[in-house]
């Protein structure tokens, strides 16, 4: 008999780790080469594979609203969109090996998104293609297509498996709170060159407002978006009734504080969106006929009086956020906000005549990189004194309907309308018939979807950037509720349940 032979464990470990360390050291010597990026990315993905197999769905929910990017992939796409593709692939493989049903696709929503993907792909095929600036092509716009397809695939990844009963509140919380990562872009810029490495993981464009306005009216975009995310989390976690719980006054104080911090972003749209969602949730919680409505009016009156008294003494970025109100403001903040409004109106006026031209066949998301470069250079050198041309070339129309119908034609707009209608029906059923423990979350998700849709149609929207917001909300709702909630026949209300608690999920 042959004597059994074996290799020591330490030899196997060193035999794997040492060559791997040498390879990584060689690649890091040329960190900006594409092969280095790709190889390091593949190695990191391989090392993270066990974690992804176990926690891919949880990580997707956590990263959905985050601002993390994948620096080693050309174009630096959002980590959430990249993970959406990986999570969907893993779920599909796991589903193929199981007999029980895993996917909660919800046919009305699922088919609308499938058709939306077909319309987008067909439009790309019939127009200028997908393009890709990161790949050295003359036509740009691949990132816009990635945003659309990533949002669609992300929905199917979110509904691939249900969220366990005891984890619903936790998952909904991390879904909203992941937006706090926007803060790191501002911190990286404020920290100086020693912190610039953070821009490999967080988008530098988020700190652009801080860099370009530090000598005029300092705008902290990251702070604004992070604070808004915390505000949405509190609405989902406690509800408006819970925020006004006098036994826990810290909730209301902290809610007012974070919403005040969001003003430092200098975005009027951010305040309008937050107010829209707040009012809609106030209605769905059935509070307009309660004493809380009077208390809210008094509180808004006091806050309004304070703002009117000290409006000119507020930071310029805060004044810009409040510029849509009839207040006495610093001329610089008022002019900056007014010029932006006039610029958007000029864009809409220039784009509207093109709607009939792209009514049946949209122009797609691809556009000429040469034209975009020349337009930008003309503006930089003072040859052109507006940015209308650059925005028009890139498809940044700053209005939801225009950014849908011009790239995708009437077919894209109709399918998007179909998706929104189907999603609203699902959100309404989960709100009315979902489990009592999920009522606040379902109320917040329904309010967020309606508020964003109203904002998208009437105020501001960018289809390729906003679609993932809509698919994320409906996808999370389906995952938390295990599909679409159905009315319970012959339901018996517990004696310990108050009348308001019993009727709350049925309010319309």
Question: What can you see in these coordinates?
Answer:
- The chain has helices spanning 9-28, 34-63, 79-96, 107-126, 142-158, 168-177, 183-191, 208-212, 221-243, 249-261, 268-284, 291-310, 316-321, 331-351, 369-380, 388-394, 402-433, 439-458, 463-481, 499-503, and strands spanning 139-140, 367-368.
- The protein has 508 residues and is an all-alpha fold.
- The chain has a domain at 9-47.
- Helix 4 runs antiparallel to helix 5 (142-158), helix 6 runs antiparallel to helix 9 (221-243) and helix 9 (221-243) packs across helix 18.
- The longest helix is centred in the C-terminal third of the chain and has 32 residues, at 402-433.
- The radius of gyration is 25 Å and the shape is globular.
């Amino acid at each position: 008999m042959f004597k059994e032979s074996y290799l020591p464990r330490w030899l196997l470990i060193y035999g794997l780790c040492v060559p791997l360390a040498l390879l990584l050291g060689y690649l890091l010597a040329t960190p900006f080469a594409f092969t280095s990026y790709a190889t390091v990315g593949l190695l990191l993905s391989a090392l993270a594979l066990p974690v992804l197999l176990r926690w891919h769905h949880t990580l997707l929910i956590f990263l959905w609203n985050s601002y993390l990017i994948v620096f080693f992939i050309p174009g630096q796409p959002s980590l959430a969109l990249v993970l959406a593709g990986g999570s969907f692939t893993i779920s599909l493989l796991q589903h193929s090996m199981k007999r029980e049903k895993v996917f909660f696709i919800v046919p009305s929503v699922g088919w609308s998104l499938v058709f939306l993907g077909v319309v987008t792909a067909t439009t790309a095929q019939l127009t200028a293609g997908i393009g890709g600036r990161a790949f050295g092509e003359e036509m740009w716009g691949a990132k816009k297509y990635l945003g659309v397809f990533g949002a669609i695939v992300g929905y199917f990844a979110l509904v691939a498996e249900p969220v366990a009963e005891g984890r619903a509140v936790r998952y909904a919380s991390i879904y909203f709170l992941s937006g706090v990562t926007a803060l790191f872009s501002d911190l990286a810029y404020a920290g100086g060159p020693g912190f610039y490495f953070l821009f490999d993981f967080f988008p530098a464009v988020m700190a652009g407002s801080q860099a370009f306005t530090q000598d005029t009216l300092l705008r902290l975009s990251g702070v604004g978006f992070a604070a808004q995310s915390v505000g949405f989390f509190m609405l989902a976690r406690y509800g408006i009734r819970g925020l006004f719980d006098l036994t826990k006054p810290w909730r209301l104080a902290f809610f007012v504080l974070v919403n005040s911090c969001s003003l430092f972003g200098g975005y009027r749209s951010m305040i309008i969106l937050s107010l829209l969602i707040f009012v809609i949730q106030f209605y769905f919680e059935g509070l307009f006929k309660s004493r809380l409505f009077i208390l809210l009016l008094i509180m808004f009156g006091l806050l309004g009086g304070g703002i009117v008294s000290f409006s000119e003494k507020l930071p310029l970025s805060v004044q810009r956020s409040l510029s849509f109100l009839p207040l006495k403001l610093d001329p610089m903040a008022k002019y900056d906000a007014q010029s932006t409004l006039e610029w958007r109106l000029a864009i809409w006026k220039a784009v509207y005549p093109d709607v009939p031209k792209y009514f049946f066949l949209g122009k797609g998301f691809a556009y000429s990189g040469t034209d975009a470069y020349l337009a930008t250079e003309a503006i930089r050198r003072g040859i052109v004194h507006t940015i209308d041309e650059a925005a028009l070339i890139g498809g940044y129309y700053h209005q939801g309907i225009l950014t849908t119908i011009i790239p995708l034609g009437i077919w894209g707009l109709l399918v998007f309308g179909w998706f929104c209608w189907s999603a609203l029906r699902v959100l309404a059923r989960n709100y009315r018939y979902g489990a009592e423990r999920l009522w606040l979350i379902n109320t917040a998700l329904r309010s967020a979807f309606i508020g964003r849709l109203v904002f998208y149609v009437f105020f501001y929207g960018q289809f390729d950037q906003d679609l993932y917001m809509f698919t994320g909300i409906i996808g999370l709702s389906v995952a938390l509720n295990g599909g679409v909630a159905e009315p319970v026949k012959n339901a018996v209300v517990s004696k310990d349940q108050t009348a308001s608690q019993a009727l709350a999920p049925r309010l319309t």
